[in-house]
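Obj: model holo form, ligand = alpha-D-fucopyranose.
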Amino acid sequence: MRKFLIGVAALAAIAGCGGGGDTVAGEADKPKIGFLVKSATEVWFQQEWKFADQAAEELGFDLIKIPTPDAEKVMSALDNLAAQGADGVIICSPDVKLGPAIVAKCKSANLKLLSVDDRLVNADEQPMDVPHLGISAHKIGKMVGQAIVDEMKVRGWNMSEVGAIAVNLDELETARQRIDGATEVLVANGFDAGRVFKSPWKTQDIPGALDAANITLTQHSDIKKWVAFSSNDDGVLGVVRATEGRNISSSDVIGVGINGTSGVDDFKKPNPTGFFGSVLLSPRKHGYDTCKMMFEWVKNGVVPPKETWTSGILITRENYEAKMKEEGLL
Ligand code: FCA
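Output (holo structure tokens):
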């Protein structure tokens, strides 16, 4: 939506260059919004993009989706957007510590900036002054912990015999809060904090979580019953696959994820796996609503709220179809 483009289109229309003058002017007037995500292969981000596409279609803007799995890709994507005359960018950065560099680049390129999911931090690891939409991570982590506690009770487990694997990403606040929330609920219900094994997640995907879980399972091969939680479904699925690899029965594993994405495939399997449940988030809010906020900002100068926190719903193999239908995800 750059003025000079409108000028060119208008001149073309006046000069009678074809019958498409109006359309050209309309196209040139459309805002251009970038949507950068840290992983285009993770189902969560594919869903976010799907809803972003829907927003572009319904509201009338050009959406430029760019996968940015590392710092270099983030910087070149921002340059690319600037060169295209984009108006704004929504980002889930692969590294939140890129915050100052991202903010500086957006300022110099006159790009409005909104972060989604992972909040950008400054050199002191404090949140940056950038509008942000994310999940209520601590509360959602507590829901995960409660679901695990409830299911341990249903199965009549003696908690002193159980181990917990927390596949964690210490450097990311939203991940930390999710894991802390789950741990707090476990411990408040009598789970020994010394049996919660934080397993560092090196690559944020299922194979990376499987590696992290295997290290912990090897170190504690005396433990026969396991619960698992992480920042998302992929983290928990890695643990579940690791237990399967060691022939630990699914009835001895309770994994509860977050997102309601990749874990749902396990619900569809005829026999229950160790993936017991997930907290279903709203990719619509994270993909469509963020785009709408950016669109309103670019088009009408409405600055998005500084913080927006979304909630989640517990799903299991019993209720996932109904809940996902309600959320427009099936
Ligand atoms: C983070 C996680 C994603 C998703 C999102 C809301 O970015 O890595 O899986 O849970 O927050």
